[in-house]
Hints:
Elements: H1 5-14, E1 22-25, H2 28-42, E2 47-51, E3 64-67, H3 70-80, E4 84-85, E5 95-96, E6 100-104, E7 115-124, E8 129-135, H4 142-148, E9 154-157, H5 166-175, H6 180-199, E10 202-212, E11 218-220, E12 224-227, H7 249-256, E13 260-263, E14 268-272, H8 275-287, E15 294-297, H9 304-314, E16 322-329, H10 334-347, E17 356-362, H11 365-373, E18 380-383, H12 386-397
Parallel strand pairs: 14-16, 16-17, 17-18
Antiparallel strand pairs: 1-6, 2-3, 2-6, 4-5, 7-8, 7-10, 8-9, 10-11, 10-12, 13-15
Amino acid sequence: MNLHEYQGKEILSSFGVGIQRGIVAQTPEEAVEAAKQLTEQTGTSWYVVKAQVHAGGRGKGGGVKLAKNLEEVKTISDDIIGMMLVTPQTSAEGKLVSQVLIAEDVYYPGESETEEFYVSVLLNRATGKNMVMYSPEGGMDIEEVAEKTPELIFTEEIDPGTGLLPFQARKIAFNLGLSGNAFKEMTKFVMSLYKAYEKSDSAMFEINPVLKTSDNKIIAVDAKVSLDENALYRHQDYLAYRDIREEHPIEVEAKAAGLNYVALDGNVGCMVNGAGLAMGTMDLIKQAGGEPANFLDVGGTADAKRVEIAFRIILKDPNVKAILVNIFGGIVRCDRVAQGVVDAYKNMKNAINVPIIVRLQGTNAVEAKALIDAQEGLNVISAVEFQEAAEKVQEVLS
């Protein structure tokens, strides 16, 4: 589950991580009041107005701007709230901005220059261990840094038995070129950041930039946080962070129905049981000359009601030109799935305007194919082998 910047900072702050303080606002008037409160709390007289959407690169799309007084806070907030923000991480249509974060100015003058760093904590899937990825080139796209100057990307793997050790945090601070009080502050920052990541059961914490202020404080100026949804039962308070306005509406509906659905950009809808088979099915569709329109895992149950819900969700995508049902009957019998497909089709016959290819393998697969083939007046085509299913997809698309 992705979080907004202000929500990620709330988690960070609760674990002792220094942050750029701010107050979220839904309207320009609220933004002005937030700025006034921020001045009382921090003494800041300049403010950073930040669009709150689940996407990076907001500054490049005009979603992050500096306001030097309250009048500019209102004007800028009025411009940003309600805009369709287009960034390198959104679609061409962009994302609707419904709220802004009014944050304190932390680039104030002082004895030394400010410096920006990149620090993230995530799982290294190759080793099965958490790692801290960091770079002295903060404030830039980390992909660009990795491409042009890979020697400036550092990683520190964490032993799951011991967690992040103090010497590793000191090593990170050293590699970032820090010394004196800034070195000590970065060491504390990294230790607290890892604790926040681990205790919140997060999938990723990405802080870009981490700022060394002119008075040698280390703070998170941004926070891109993704929580592990499988662990949310242990963090009931985090459930309130979910913002369905930022999620694909069909995915929200599918989740409410207990289906695992991810929208894609193709033309062939997929209904599969099991994530591995779903991935293989999407490969099959591409080999047949099509493009998968979605990932949809119906799980171990594929009765008529569940299949009908899945069909209705898939068909909400106007780009779908065909549907491929690919079910392995291990726990569930294939003939029951076939009957579910037939019953669902009849229940919503007027709503189905694309051909459906059904491949069922496993328990009672022969009986399932016979049941499908016996139907009249249904645009449902049976298949047995993977290659046969691919050919059927190719036929209906041509």
